[in-house]
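ARCHIVE CARD
Drawer: 12
Card no.: 0347
Subject: one protein chain, sequence and derived structure
Cross-reference: see card 0346
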Amino acid sequence: MSNAGKGLLSALALLPLLALLPLLALPPLAAAAAPCARLAAFSPGAAMAEPPPASADARPTQAAAPAPPASPADGDGEVVEQLRLRVPAELRQAWLQAEQGSWGPFLARQEGFLGRQLFWDPARQEGTVLVRWASRALWQAIPPADLERVQAHFERLARQAGAKGQDNPFPLLFSGELEPQ
């Protein structure tokens, strides 16, 4: 493939991130630890220190730990897990509370977790979760049974916070991964 073709493919891969560009003019990440990974079949993302203020609709909630370099044994470098969820405006706080009480503590204990950001798009009624991992191998090493247990706890917390009558109150719309450049 020519260099021009490779450049076009690289540019096309970045298109989904263009919607996040207005949100990236943010202060540095807060220093708070929290690790983990999820199965593609599950929805929400990871850890959160505190829910954002109600006026911060388009600003992310951030949690991060120092980024250790990937070791040769990992077999790969840093990767970002990307999840998009249906989050209606009236359930936004329930989503944030459930994230904080479930995925946050779980991720904080996972090897290779570097941090995460939660975004909410009021126009689309969607949440985006970006979870940074030291390597894909460490992310994917989390046992599926652990992920299922945390997802079930997340859904219980969401229902307790006001998300009623649904199996998963915040269905997964997209799951993917990004490589930092």
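Annotation on reverse: The chain is about 25% helix and 20% strand. Confidence is low (pLDDT under 50) at residues 2-75.
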